[in-house]
Design goal:
Length: 299
């Protein structure tokens, strides 16, 4: 499976390079600060999953051409805008192993650059000359904003349910991947059933992506993650592994989990990870991720 994944990424290297070129080319502005902050968030790493999903979906539906690279930046600009805003809200200091933009240029500048990237994405969407593209994108950005607000409302909430968690990640993360796939289908001019199938595939892939990311926050390596382990919980995000552990743990372990989660320090992170693993919650979350992957394949 790992070898297959590396092979796919190898096949897409030229596409990723073309997307990176388009990201720089489309970031033209007469305000140097915008370009500087934009390059920092856009070119300091990232897998380009959303632009690739768009390009691959469009090609699958018969839409070809170099213009897809330019359109694909819509989704990376939107994603980058949310990252800039997230880092301000979470008072984060590290992303992808580098200092966050807000620690370098300050919150005000970073919020405004995030707004610029959102506006840039919408202006690029207009150039597709398809009203439905704008409708899908406006619906997605509305849901993303709702997801951000829901996440804020649930900050530090150890009583959050799985249903509430999935509502947050569906709106905050998965909907943009869904839109990328659906808009690729729209540009390909396929029937409504195929368009909906690609939209659902993107949604399920997006949920898988976020669940796996939440697993890695407890089980990953700090160097590979580019941030501290358990960073999500420190920033107030209660995710699936902890939600499941709190529901399944013995009363004694649940009490300890709650105490650690309410006052997490780097020294307590290993104990927290051990208690979550003891409850079978990492394996549970992996099963959930696999199930959503299967749903995406069925679409």
């Amino acid at each position: 499976m790992l070898a297959r994944g590396k092979s796919i990424l190898k096949d897409l290297e030229n596409d990723v390079a073309a997307i990176n070129e388009a990201l720089t080319a489309n970031l033209q502005t007469h305000v140097p600060l915008i370009a500087e902050v934009g390059r920092h968030i856009l070119l300091s790493g990232g897998k380009r999953i959303r632009p690739l999903l768009f390009i691959l979906s469009a090609r699958m539906c018969g839409c070809q051409g170099n213009h897809l690279n330019g359109f694909s930046t819509i989704f990376e600009y939107l994603h980058a805008a949310t990252l800039l805003h997230d880092d301000v809200i979470d008072t984060a200091s590290v992303r992808r192993g580098a200092s966050t933009a807000n620690t370098i240029w300050g919150n005000q500048a970073v919020i405004l650059v995030g707004d610029f990237l959102l506006a840039k994405a919408l202006s690029l969407a207009v150039t597709t000359n398809k009203l439905k593209v704008l409708q899908v994108l406006s619906q997605a950005t509305t849901m993303m904003a709702e997801g951000e607000i829901l996440q804020l409302l649930h900050a530090g909430n150890l009583n959050i349910t799985e249903a509430e968690y999935f509502e947050v990640i569906s709106r905050k993360t998965a909907i943009l991947m869904s839109a990328a796939c659906q808009i690729g289908a729209i540009l390909g001019g396929v029937p409504a059933e195929q368009e909906e199938a690609l939209s659902q595939m993107g949604l399920n892939l997006g949920i898988t992506f976020q669940v796996v990311d939440d697993i890695l926050d407890y089980s990953g390596d700090e160097k590979e993650l580019g941030k501290e382990v358990c960073a999500d919980l420190r920033e107030g995000r209660v995710t699936l592994p902890l939600i499941h552990a709190l529901a399944q743990a013995s009363p004694v372990d649940r009490e300890r989990l709650t105490a650690i989660a309410q006052d997490l320090t780097p020294e307590l992170a290993p104990e927290l990870r051990s208690l979550i693993d003891k409850s079978g919650s990492l394996d549970y979350a992996r099963t959930v991720a696999r199930n959503y992957t299967l749903k995406a394949q069925e679409n």
